[in-house]
Amino acid sequence: MPHLTRRRPDRRLILLLGALAACGPLGTDIYLPSLPAIAASFGVPAAAAAATLTAFIAGFSIGMVLYGPISDAYGRRPVLLAGLGLFVVASVACWLSASINQLIVMRFLQALGAGAASVLARTIARDAHEPGEASKVLSMVALVTSVGPLLAPLIGGQLLLLGDWRTVFVALTLFGAFCSVAAWLRVPETWPREKRANQAVLQSFAAYGRLLRDPAVWGHLLCGGMVFAAMFTYITETPFVYIQYFHISPQHHGRQLSEHALCRPVRRAADDFRRIDAVASGAALFVAFACLTGWGGLWSMVAGLCCVIGVVGLLSANCATDLMSRYPDNAGAAAALFGATQLAFGALASFVVGLFPGISPAGMGWTIGVCGVLGYVGRVLIVRGHGREALALST
Question: Do residues 45 and 129 share a domain?
């Protein structure tokens, strides 16, 4: 298919790109109410079931780093279609998994496929429109994508009424098949051959090395990454804490996850992210206190978690914007590194919280508390970096 010339926004294409970008959040959130059922089905502890989420996050993180440079070298459309094909095949394999280890491996592969859809949907939206329109289109894509975290847990809880946990993967298979057919028919190639470079992958990895040598970059990664890790700690652990410890039904838990998603601000203004991080760190420490002491019970934890989750999008957007402004010549690599690191921290946090024995809020409290402290360390590194730059400019 010939590549697309830049033109005014196509609402149908925007809806499709939003659905593609939602593959990752949907693949994560829709099966959360099923985690206790998965553990019971295979006769394994909660930590083993939670490892399926960790594997998904790890695969998604790796995919984010790889697919951008690969599509720069070989084009957007073939890489997107290959990723969607992998997502569908892996979803079928998850559905038919005979052991927890097989499910973990298939979830990793499923996430690799979802990574292509999520990353390239935004890249295609940027390619296909003039710079003045691109930001508006990306905002509309983000708005469509935000529907996934709102509806996915609710849908996942209702699917358990229709069958066992495998029903969730049947739904993901059908969703992936729909996206594959729609992408084949409707998504054009947006990256012309004359702009492709076979060395793009190597150049991008060299840029990653330059970024990681800057302490201020690590400040941004910690600041944005730790709030993401706190959110994934919540995503991993609350199915067990809410359903098994506080005896909330899976359907009610799905509704609570959807309500928590409403805490996320839709508008992403250029606010002072250092102040936002202070709010996130303070809320994380409050959650840790509530979980470890039991003060206020469930609703105290819910209120604190809502504050943490409420700033995830805003803090992440502002950290990423400041980081890309710091490295304008490597903005793509900076954005990919930031996104991949967020997911890596999320995977690490979901793994660590699964190591705590028993079903109680304690593991969630300790993990989110550490995230709050490390997030504040990131804020300090950013402030010092900006201070050195201001001093250099004044001399």
Answer: yes
Helix (H, G, I), strand (E, B) or coil at 90: helix
Alpha helices, H only, 272-361: 273-293, 297-310, 312-326, 331-354
> Could you give the CA distance from residue 323 to residue 321 in angstroms, rounded to a whole number?
5
pLDDT in tens, 265-278: 444 444 466 677 78
For residue 181, the number of C-alpha atoms closer than 13 Å in the C-beta half-sphere is 5
Terminal CA-CA length for the chain: 55
Q: What's the pLDDT tens digit per position in 125-169? A: 767 666 556 556 655 665 555 566 656 766 777 787 788 889 999
Domain boundary among 197, 212, 233: 197
pTM of the full structure: 0.66
Separation between Cα atoms, residue 75 and residue 85, nearest integer Å? 16
User: Domain limits at 150?
Assistant: 8-197
Question: Based on the structure, what is the number of domains in the chain?
Answer: 2
The span from the CA of 163 to the CA of 211, in Å, is 48
What's the confidence (pLDDT) of residue 384? 83
**Do the beta carbons of residue 196 and residue 8 sit within 8 Å?**
no
For residue 239, the tally of other CB atoms under 10 A from its CB is: 29
- pLDDT class for 35, splitting at 50, 70, 90? confident
In this structure, are residues 333 and 211 in contact, taking their beta carbons and an 8 Å threshold? yes
Q: Scanning the structure block, which residue is given the tokens 């996942």? A: 156
Instruction: Tell me the C-alpha distance between 189 and 5, whole Å.
Output: 9
